[in-house]
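[step 3/7] fold_predict: job queued, chain A
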Amino acid sequence: MRAKVTYFALAAALVVYFVLVGSRGILLIQQGTLLTVTFGVAVLVLPLIGLWFLWKTTQFARKAGKLAAELEAEGGLPVDELKRLPSGRIDRDSADEVFARRRAETEDAPDDWRCWFRLAVAYHDARDTPRARKAMQRAIALHERRPA
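[step 4/7] structure written:
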């Protein structure tokens, strides 16, 4: 719950920032000189890219959350069996061991979104965020029955 509150607070702050930057871009365009219009257009492009990125990230998080809820209802969420260091961080060898099992499970059932979801969690635990995101995107695509 805390993560959701933080996410929405940061998203709201970003939207406010985009509005402020966008208004500055419009003011620059209204100046009417070649230089200010060029800068104004450039300034307007940045909030549009930011809004698009925020939208895509929100959609990804929403869809991943739906998969997690569905998997939880089925009783298929991965159990946290990782060993922890005294600092509380995940032991790397433990994460690698779980990852190897999840990868084998996914190789045995490459069209099962549940396996890809659990693989994404294993990638995340192994601190490989780019691959975790790609595995989760694959799980979402399989769940929605569309090509990845």
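[step 5/7] annotate
Residues 34-74 form the longest helix (41 residues).
The chain has two domains: 2-74, 92-143.
exit 0
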